[in-house]
Structures are given as C-alpha cells and as structure tokens.
Amino acid sequence: MIYFTLFVLIISISFSLFFRWTTFINVVKQMMHSIEDHVYVYQLFKVPELNENLQENQFYRKVSTYVNSLSSSIEDSDFTNLFSSEGKDIILYLDDNQIVHDTFLGARISWKYQVLVEDDYQKKKTFVLKMKKRDKRRILQSYLQHIDTVSDEIEERCRRELKLFINTESHQHRRWRSTPLAHPATLNTIVMDSDLKIRIMSDLESFLESKEYYHRLGRVWKRSYLLYGPSGTGKSSFVAAMAKSLNYDVYDVDLSNVSDDSDLKMLLVQTRRKSLIVVEDLDRFLNDSSSSSVSLSGLLNFMDGIVSSCSGDEKIMVFTMNYKELIDPPVLRPGRVDVHIYFPLCDFNMFLTLADTYLGVKDHKMFPHVEETFEITGATLSPAEIAELMVMNRSSPSRAFKSVMTALQINKVAASSKLQGRWIGDSSDQSESSSGILNWKDVSSPAIKEIRKFYGVLSAKIGDT
Ligand SMILES: Nc1ncnc2c1ncn2[C@@H]1O[C@H](COP(=O)(O)OP(=O)(O)OP(=O)(O)O)[C@@H](O)[C@H]1O
Ligand SMILES: [Mg+2]
C-alpha cells in the first residue's frame, strides 16, 4: 500500500508541472481521500426527505440547510446549482449525486445528495452521511447536535424572509409549495380599532407563552381566530400583518385542491412550526360543500387540530369569511374557534386614518362635511373602496373626499329607494372612474339623478366655506 501511495504521488508531482499549484493540491487531496476510502471501514446513514407515511422528515430539512451552508465544499463539487432572488447574493445548492466534505472534531465526514426518480415520476431525495466507523462512537451524537444547532441558527436568520405556502395538486408527495410572502400589509397599515389591534396581538403573545398551561389542561396547544366582515375590510391583509408581526410563515389551505379528509390531515401534518394556517372564505365551503371533496367532519377535525397535536408544537389557525350569521353554530363553537374578530365597513374615524395613510392629509377643511355625510348615511363603504377612491384621486385630496361623500350618498339613496345596486369600487368598470368620480351598477336609474343634484348642492356648500 505504501509503495502504491508513493507511486501515485510521483505521478502526481510530474503532472503538477502542467497544472496550477492549487489544482495540484486538490488532485493530491482527492487521491489521499480515495486511498483512505480503501483503508478504513465506513458507516453510512441515510436521511430521506419523507418518511414511510409521506410526512416530511424534519431532520432532512435541517441537513439540507446545513449541507448547503458548506459553500466552500459545495464549490469543490463537480456540479453546483446557483440561485439568486431579487437583490440577494447568489446561493449555491448541491446537485444530484454530488458529494461535499465536512470536518468535525478532527473527523472527516462526507455528505452525498441523491435523487431517485420513481415509476410515478415522484422524486425521492436523500442525503447520505458517511463517516469512519471508528469516529462514529466519538462524534456522531455531537455532530448531529451540531447540525441541529447550526441549521436552527441559519433558519432563524432566513426567517426574515417569510414564506407563503400554497397546497399543490393532491397527487404530489410534497404538497406545499412556497413563495416569499409579498403582501405589503403590516399592523401599522391596517386601519382598525387600535385597542382591538393591541388586544389581538397580546392574546397571541400570551397564547405563545402558554405551552405548559395547555399541556397541564390536556388541551391541544392551538388558538383559532375567525376574521369576518364584508368584502374589502382588510381580513386577508390582517392575516399577512399578523404573520409579519409574529415573524411566522403562512400556510394558505385551498380546500378546492384537497382530495379528501385524509389529504387534509396530511397537509396539516406537513406544516412547520412558527406558521399561521389559514383557510380563506370558509363560508363559501360551508355553504357549498360541492366546492371541495372534504367532508364537514373532516373539516371540523382539521379545525380542532387533533392530528397536529402529536408534534406538540403550537398551532395558530385563522379562518376568514364574509358572514357568519348563516353558519351552523357548532362549527364556530368556543374551543374550535377561540376569537371572533369583526371587520366593519369604514366609519369616519377609519376614513381619517385612510386619508392620512393614502393622501398624507391629517387635517382638511372638508373633514367636517365628510363627518356630517357619514352621520347621515352611516358606514356603507369598505376601507378597500375608500382606499381605491383615494388612490385614484391622490393628486387632489379635495376631489378624493368629494368622491367619498358622493359614493356614501349614492348608497344611502339606493338603500332608501330600495334599489338593488349600490356604489361599488369596481375598477373593471371604467365608465366614470377614470375621471375619479364613480362606478355605479345602474347608471340610468333615477337615484343617480338625485345624487347628481345632491352632489351639486354639496359642491356649492363646500365652495362657500
Ligand atoms: N382595514 C383596512 N386598512 C387598510 N387597508 C385596507 C383595509 N381593508 C381593506 N384595505 C385595502 O383593501 C385591499 C383589500 O383588502 P383585503 O383583501 O384585506 O380585504 P378582505 O376583507 O380580505 O376582502 P374579501 O372578503 O373580499 O377577501 C387591501 O389590499 C388594502 O389595500
Ligand atoms: Mg380576503
């Protein structure tokens, strides 16, 4: 063996006349390693991505994070994937069948990434750890602990970029696909009662600190929130704002993409810690069960979070709907849904906050008129509708406020004339909106004439002030 090693070294040295010094060193290293491979007895450990129940192997994720952080070793592999996202550095990812080396407490370790494509075209991904048998007893436990710690630190750093997970077609093993959570809403940009905002966030915080308490009571460590209210009142925006405030990912469950009750359970099991599990427009499913293949009892079990309880991690669920009046009360009973939060249409106070946020106007001579209009008409516009009028008229706050008052009046007249239609901020109907005025479902109606008359009077009144 020694003669063989010497022979190889001599050959290598002569080749070094033709290679650059660094290349020469690498070649020698590789040779030494392959010689070592023949001399020592190795032990292999497989870390598959999914277990036999097709659940995500949490340790695989940690290994993947850890191995892909060994960038200098990845650079040395024959094939490397290079990725970047907007404004970010280029990241290296190990390719199929490539090996990276690591050292720990003086022991040399290698990782191989393997991807097998099965008959049904599903990819079976595995990391294979290789270490000398004689090192195993000395370092294995502490090396695995090291991977756990390092990957946690990396994930914590990466958590700054939150993810939105969406469930894919049910025939795929890996059901969740992620994309960066790009929703711009934050708790500061959501216009709602500030006390309510604070109460919700402190409820969440106290829940997250209560692991022991739930455990003692024998309850699943879970808290569910129902956000309900008319369309465009900020429910979906609030979900994004909650996630950002907690630094949690969002799992958005699309019930129409779930094949049956066990598929729904599987989706829940495959969610990770520190995430919000969200079902939007729950009322649509409850009012029209044909919109999904999930049964009502499957959905109730999902809401109760029983399957997730085996992980012992916290679960925060958020459901949104427009109207809860027609929902069967047991579906929303305490324990199943813990906190009900109503998102109302926009009143004068919310209007003031929107004017500040969207137009930068804190005070305006028209505000008393707007307030008076709100008093007469009540709140009939959603924050989304008012926000849209402000965006359309952002170059002229006066025009924006007039548009809001006119829209409120239209809805008031429509209600008193028992008309079907109401003013809606539908940007697809550009009939009048391009001039920053209004959209109206029934433009030929007598109510509109009445509004125009009112609008003329109002303009004159404002002009006088
Ligand atoms: N309370 C609010 N504060 C600030 N902006 C709001 C608010 N409500 C709505 N908006 C604006 O309207 C848009 C639509 O809001 P969002 O999608 O959150 O409403 P929603 O209640 O989820 O409606 P839907 O019931 O139709 O799903 C948001 O992007 C945001 O710009
Ligand atoms: Mg929504």
Automatic annotation (TrEMBL):
Domain annotation AAA+ ATPase: ranges: 221-347
Keyword Hydrolase: yes
Keyword Magnesium part of the UniProt annotation: yes
Catalysed reaction, written as an equation: ATP + H2O = ADP + phosphate + H(+)
Pfam families from the UniProt entry: AAA (PF00004), AAA_assoc (PF14363), AAA_lid_At3g28540 (PF25568)
InterPro entries, A to Z: AAA+_ATPase (IPR003593), AAA_N_dom (IPR025753), At3g28540-like_C (IPR058017), ATPase_AAA_core (IPR003959), Mitochondrial_chaperone_BCS1 (IPR050747), P-loop_NTPase (IPR027417)
Any Gene Ontology biological process: response to stress
GO molecular function, a single term: ATP binding
Superkingdom of this protein's organism: Eukaryota
SMART domains to which the protein is assigned, alphabetical: AAA
Alphabetically ordered keywords of this record: Hydrolase, Magnesium
Cofactor(s), by name: Mg(2+)
Entry similarity comment: Belongs to the AAA ATPase family. BCS1 subfamily.
Protein name: AAA+ ATPase domain-containing protein
Source species of the chain: Daucus carota subsp. sativus (Carrot)
